[in-house]
Write a structure and sequence with these properties.
The protein contains seven helices and no strands. The chain is elongated. Helix 2 (35-41) packs across helix 3 (43-55), helix 3 (43-55) packs antiparallel against helix 5 (81-105) and helix 5 (81-105) crosses helix 6. Helices cover 58% and strands 0% of the residues. The chain has one domain. Bound molecules: zinc ion.
């Protein structure tokens, strides 16, 4: 749904004719809430995505939605551990940002960014449990240390 831009963001709901208090982003309250904004333009989400990239050993400027997906499609190919971790992290990231958005929208407690990042790391550790990892590759060792993969 996120890739197809079908998530019921506030802007989409208003376009569908639903009466909503306002169309502002729940994280920053500065601009209309669109898919592109809440995932890769909002400073809140960008700081989490930046932390994920750093855990993957990638230090670069964050792009927009299409830019990030196109970067992933171009750079992450094959069956390397980095590709596997990155794909899982992207999926987990989209899930947790949307879940956090819904929690805040419906009055839930705000979670610190460190807790959210930890939940993504735990998700990846569980998903990679039993995954064959070449531990003679120094990049894999660094990834395992960063992500806490045993
Ligand atoms: Zn925002």
């Amino acid at each position: 749904m996120a890739i197809l831009d079908r998530l019921p963001t506030r802007v989409r709901l208003m376009r569908m004719g639903l009466v909503i208090e306002n169309d502002r982003c729940i994280f920053c309250d500065l601009v209309p809430e669109t898919r592109n904004h809440i995932f890769f333009e909002c400073d809140y989400a960008k700081s989490l995505w930046k932390a994920i990239l750093l855990l993957c050993g990638v230090n670069r400027r964050i792009s927009h939605w299409e830019g990030e997906l196109s970067w992933a499609a171009h750079c992450l190919k094959g069956k390397s551990l980095l590709t596997r971790v990155f794909k899982l992290a992207l999926t987990s990231y989209v899930y947790v940002i949307w879940r956090e958005r819904n929690k805040r929208l419906y009055g839930g407690l705000l979670r610190p960014m460190s807790d959210i990042l930890l939940s993504i790391k735990t998700d990846i550790q569980i998903r990679l449990d039993g995954w064959p990892i070449n531990r003679s590759d120094s990049r894999n060792i660094a990834l395992c240390v960063s992500w806490g993969i045993s």
